[in-house]
Design brief:
By secondary structure, this protein is of the alpha/beta class.
Length: about 375
């Protein structure tokens, strides 16, 4: 890999801090009997950002930040409440928030397999640890380095000296830092003498630091660091590619299928995906560079509830496929991890599939079982089918 060691920021790189901050702030102030206006919300962001900037510059301590940001804010909006206690309640709210940035979970799973991945954060240790656990990211990192424990903040080079003292100074030349902040992450990377990658989703802000790389989507980072495969959810423009893979899959499984049958099946699949992709059916794809190499579908089904699916929502995995020249490289396993992570967000009773004998071990590792049943599965074909 081009960069075998990756340092990654947490807030607004992997976890949506803005969403977490907004929710916690609104809840806090509503509890104090002072619902905030939009202007007051923007005022808090200004004050909070200014305090964190002072922390980065070393003109404010972490303890002063805790005592100051809400004191300043409440003075401006006329709320009579202890600023330090408000800070504690605000951090409690933050610790319960685990809104992932799009692509964060599959990126961390992949990097964990391909590189040494470490979190570097200026956030409060206990809050960040709770958010990592709640997000599903726990276990993705070799270590977590927090300025509160190290004693220096990013972008101070001494913060990074402590990181490399722990992981090995010899790893510095092969390290890249990925983060959203120019003043903290990118400037810190420059101070540390390591490669920098700025995550800037809008693509509109000016790079005032001179970053080595710049991305607008987390999925773009995979090819940059040299990992051989990246994953993402399928979009409408991917429908033809999805159908190419599905039809190859069917030709392998049913060599007796005629050209007329294939054409009819493909036409129906294209039409079905155009109507339902992103609604009741979700596609997942793996890429090497710009080449699609594997895919799978997840079909969500709603039906009357029973003991096995008490909320009536289940899903079926369909057409897990990898092009022959890319098989036995672990691509399908990475794809299925992404699919199952997404399935976990859909409030399903279970996910099922039809496992080929050679893939049974993979699915068992993901938690699939052969369900016990007193019944015999049966099917009544309504038209002739050559199995």
């Amino acid at each position: 890999m081009k960069y075998p060691v990756v340092l990654i920021d947490l807030d607004d790189t992997l976890l949506d801090f803005q969403a977490a901050s907004h929710d916690s702030l609104m809840s806090l102030c509503e509890g104090l009997g002072h619902p905030l206006s939009k202007e007051e919300q923007e005022l808090f962001e200004e004050i909070n950002s200014a305090c964190w900037k002072e922390l980065e510059l070393g003109t404010m301590t972490r303890e002063q930040l805790s005592a100051t940001r809400f004191t300043r804010f409440f003075e401006k909006i006329g709320v009579d409440f202890d600023g330090l206690e408000a800070n504690r309640l605000f951090r409690e709210g933050l610790s319960r928030s685990a809104v992932l940035i799009d692509g964060a979970l599959p990126l961390c799973r992949l990097l964990n397999e391909k590189a040494e991945l470490y979190v570097v954060t200026n956030g409060f240790v206990d809050t960040q640890a709770q958010r990592i656990r709640a997000s599903g990211l726990e276990g993705s990192f070799r270590g977590i380095f927090a300025s509160q424990e190290i004693g220096f903040q990013k972008p101070d080079s001494r913060f990074f000296d402590a990181v490399f003292a722990a992981i090995g100074e010899d790893k510095r030349p092969g390290t890249v830092i990925l983060g959203d902040s120019l003043s903290s992450d990118m400037k810190g990377g420059k101070n540390a003498g390591i490669a920098t990658c700025w995550f800037e989703p809008t693509g509109l802000k000016e790079d005032t630091v001179g970053c080595d790389h710049r991305i607008t989507k987390l999925s773009d980072f995979v090819s940059l660091v040299g990992a051989d495969v990246s994953y993402r959810m399928a979009e409408k423009d991917d429908i033809e590619s999805l159908c190419d893979m599905a039809m190859y899959f069917m030709r392998e499984k049913y060599p007796q299928m005629t050209q007329e049958e294939e054409a009819s099946i493909r036409e129906q699949r294209v039409d079905f995906l155009k109507k339902n992709l992103g609604d009741c059916i979700f596609g997942f794809m793996g890429f090497v560079g710009s080449e699609a190499v594997c895919s799978a579908l997840l079909h969500v089904i709603e039906q009357p509830a029973n003991r096995w699916h008490p909320n009536g929502r289940t899903a079926t995995v369909l057409n897990v496929f990898t092009w022959p020249e890319h098989r036995r490289k672990g691509y399908a396993e990475g794809l299925m991890h992404m699919l199952m992570d997404y399935a976990a967000t859909l409030d399903l009773s279970y996910v099922d599939l039809q496992a080929a004998p050679q893939a049974k071990h993979l699915y068992e590792k993901l938690g699939f079982i052969v369900p016990p049943s007193k019944n015999t599965p049966m099917r009544c074909p309504m038209r002739p089918v050559d199995y």
